[in-house]
Amino acid sequence: MPAAAHSLAEHEAKQALAVHGVRVPRSRLIAPAEAAEAATALGFPVVIKAAGAALEHKSDVGGVVLNVRSAAEAADAAQRLASLSPTLLVEEMIADGVAEVLVGMRVDPQFGLLLVLGAGGVLTELLRDSVTLLPPFTAASITAALGRLRMAPLLAGFRGRAAADVPALVEAALGCNRYARENLERLAELDLNPVIVRPRGLGAVAVDALIRLV
To answer: Of 5, 28, 38, 85, which is most buried by a Cβ count within 10 Å?
Structure first.
C-alpha cells in the first residue's frame, strides 16, 4: 500500500521553495504573545496566520488576518488565532499586486511532472482559468502559456494598470520545477496559490504554499 501523503507546514514549504529560487514574503514564526513585536519588526502592514501542517485551508476556518496595521491590531489578531494554533506566522503583506496567479506541479503516471498555471486567489474556482504544460519547462514555454490564459490582459497591463512582472512569475514557476525535480520520488502535490505578481521590475511573491509529500 502506498504511503499516505503528508503536508509540510506553510513556513516549511516556503523555506524549501525559497532555496530553489521562489520568492516568498519576509516572515517570522512566533508564539501568539510575540505577535506585536514581530509585526513591528517586519513593518506594517502584515498578515498573521495560524501555522501548522494540519491547517492546509486556513482561510476556511478564519486562520488568516490580512492588513494588520498596528501593534495593537497584531496583538488582537494573535489572541483570536491562538485558538487555532499555538504557533503563528507573521508575514509582510504584499499590497501592490497586479495579479494573483496559481502555480502548481502535478506528477502524472504517464508524462511525469506537469506544470499548472492559472488565475489564482479567490478567482481560482470562480474562473477555472488554467493551462497545463508538459515538460520540458522553459521560460519561453511558460511565458507563452501565461499568454493563453483568459487573465492574460491583467498581466499585460489592463486598461492603464501597470504591467505585471511576468519574468519574475516565470522564474517562480521554474523554481517550483527545480524543487519538484529534486523531490520527484516523494512529491504528491505542490501549489502556490496565489503568487502575487507585482508591477514590472518589482518581482512576484508566493504568499501561500502547499507541498504534500509521500
So the answer is: 38
